[in-house]
Each structure stands twice: as structure tokens, then as C-alpha cells.
């Protein structure tokens, strides 16, 4: 995991950095997750998003179960060097485990979270 | 701070939620910050982004010094209810304290973070 670019990142105390995944064409925000140093290095090397699963405490190659990998076209860093933005091509057009294009499918309307996006594929058929 | 929609958010142990601010027209990600329950309630009530400054430990009405307020047009929630996405209209066209449109102005090229966006306004003239 060489690369001084990794040293420039202001990792959290837990050694993580928040990552926003954005569709490179539509500009839609597809998901938000975390990476550690190893997963970010792998993301750069492999060209596909590799996150750090905080719940499972292990590397999480996005799409390893669903097949919905995220091809990474650009990696960007913010002014404080503590947030990463990746521009991706979402394989299968589905980023969310609910079977939707994006994890952000609820919008606040009249004081309630309303679902504004359809399920494109039944999760039962995604995760077998 | 009533509103059951606030109760549906999975706040961190510190009572915060990460917030992504996206330009409602261009789709560009302008910044990333945090909100607590009070700041999110105020954001909804006032129609302009109010963050929680972790460094200063106080409410931070975006633009209070710079004048670069963020009019909030939509508030979205992700599948795990632990990340907020706001669609905004950025007053002044500058979200970053460096005087750039977006805080994400560095891109990884050939193993280095390269600045790919211009400074639109000298920060010295923004923060007087």
C-alpha cells in the first residue's frame, strides 16, 4: 500500500474515510460508505470500488454478492482531505441493496419520508 | 424540535448525521458536513442549510460569514437512514472556504492529488 497520496488523507481515529459514490454520467448520488487505507488502495489498483464494511469489519468488494460492481472513473478529495468522492459506472444500474438505483430514495415531503424511487429488481433475486 | 421524521434517522453515538450537499441543477457535489437533530430541524424550518460544526461545537449557519448560503430544495435519506442528501441552490456559486465552487477540487491523477478547479474568489475577500 505505497503511495504518498494515501498519506495525505485525514483518516478518522478508526482509520476510515467517508466515501460518496456518484454516477459519472447522471451525477446522481448512488451511495455512501467508508473505506480504510487498504480498501482505497485496492479501489485505485483494481479500478472497482472496495469499501470497508464497518458492520462486518472486513473488506467489501462492492458487487461481490450482487454482481453490481462499481467501476471507478475518478477519485476526488475535498478541501479538508477527509472525504472522498468517486465517480463511478454502476454495473446493473442498481447500487442499493433494496434493489433501487440509489440508496437515496426517500425524500422529505410534508414532514414525512416518502419513497420516490421504484424497486428495479427484487432483492431476493439479487442476493441468492 | 418535533417531527417524527427526525426520529427515523439513525444518529451516530454523538448525535450526528453526515450530510452531502449537491447542487440541484448541475448535480455537482459541493460539500460534505454534519448535522445534529437541532441543525437538521432548523434546516427544514428555515429552508437554508444549518450544519453542526464539530470543530467549533456549535450550530453553523452556512454562509453566516461568507454570505454563501445554501437554499435547500430537497432533503433525502438513504436506505440505512444514516446519511442525508440535500439538494441546494448555492448562493454566490461558491461552497468551499478556499473560494472554489466545490470542496471537491482535487482529483487523483498518476498517483497525485491534482487541483482541477480554479479559485473563483480570493478567500480574503470572502471572510473579512
TrEMBL record, chains A, B:
Pfam families reported in the protein's UniProt record: PRA-CH
Cofactors: Mg(2+); Zn(2+)
Binding residues for Zn(2+): 79, 96, 103
Listed name of the protein: Phosphoribosyl-AMP cyclohydrolase
Ranges for domain Phosphoribosyl-AMP cyclohydrolase: 31-105
The enzyme's E.C. designation: 3.5.4.19
Predominant cellular place of this UniProt entry's protein: cytoplasm
Any one GO molecular-function label of the UniProt entry: phosphoribosyl-ATP diphosphatase activity
Function: Catalyzes the hydrolysis of the adenine ring of phosphoribosyl-AMP.
Catalytic activity annotation: 1-(5-phospho-beta-D-ribosyl)-ATP + H2O = 1-(5-phospho-beta-D-ribosyl)-5'-AMP + diphosphate + H(+); 1-(5-phospho-beta-D-ribosyl)-5'-AMP + H2O = 1-(5-phospho-beta-D-ribosyl)-5-[(5-phospho-beta-D-ribosylamino)methylideneamino]imidazole-4-carboxamide
Family the entry assigns: In the C-terminal section; belongs to the PRA-PH family. In the N-terminal section; belongs to the PRA-CH family.
HAMAP family, per the entry: HisI
Subcellular location: Cytoplasm
The entry's keywords: Amino-acid biosynthesis, Cytoplasm, Histidine biosynthesis, Hydrolase, Magnesium, Metal-binding, Zinc
Domain of life where this protein originates: Bacteria
Annotated binding of Mg(2+), by residue: 78, 80, 82
GO cellular component, one term: cytoplasm
BP GO annotations: L-histidine biosynthetic process
Cofactor binding comment, as recorded: Binds 1 Mg(2+) ion per subunit. Binds 1 zinc ion per subunit.
Pathway(s) annotated for this protein in UniProt: Amino-acid biosynthesis; L-histidine biosynthesis; L-histidine from 5-phospho-alpha-D-ribose 1-diphosphate: step 2/9; Amino-acid biosynthesis; L-histidine biosynthesis; L-histidine from 5-phospho-alpha-D-ribose 1-diphosphate: step 3/9
Subunit details: Homodimer.
